[in-house]
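Final report, closing paragraph on structural work. Over the funding period we assembled a curated collection of sequence-structure pairs, and we close with a single example.
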Amino acid sequence: MKPEEQTWIFHLGGKLHGLNTETGDGLSCGDVPLPGEIWRIGAGEIYRGVARGSSMAYLLLRLSPKNLKALGGVGEFQTSSRFCYRDPEIAASLFELRAQTSRIGLEATCGRLMWSLGQHLRTEARILESPKLHGSTVKHLEQFIEGHLSEPIRLEQLCRESGLSRSELCRRFSATFGISPGQYILRRRVRRAASLLAEGPVDLSGLAFDVGFSSHSHLTHAFRGLTGLTPSRYLDARTLGPVKK
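Its predicted structure, as stored:
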């Protein structure tokens, strides 16, 4: 890879039980990638990844500074690495790409993917230029949320844990993570469910309560909204083929 190029990895699916990734500057992630998620590797970064499982499907895109400028990504922060995140429009394009079988369809979907990527970069630039949470607060909130996923987590609790007002917490949280506290908690619950599903067959109703959803249908709705797959499809096949609507 050229040192000035940024690398984007868009995960489409697969049968993974784990993926440990890290960069030379110490950024690391041990989460299993869900369909539609993004791993962005900064230009010139050393990247290492160790996957556990039988298969993985992904789209790899390398962008030069000229490409990034054309797409609208001009913020300095957007040259850095970022793991395990998603954008709804990009995810929708990826799910559509996964289902395409014709050349014309693929070309049209790739065009929409690039448009979504440009929109994502411009939105990210606006959000992430705001003041962020301090590193110690980030770590504390991450640990608090992970430790209470099976319970209702209210914004007032996060305000108490962070020592911030509701409005200040929401602003700084969104600037740090790129999403709201509620969206972050939802995604962590879906990820916990996916990790448990990857270990083998489980009772889906029991799983829903274990990761903080009110019902099996609530879990299914959230899981499909983020991954394009129902929990049953993810459990039975974790297929690389088209997603049935």
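The CA atoms of residues 208 and 214 lie 7 Å apart. The chain is about 50% helix and 20% strand. We thank the funder for supporting this effort.
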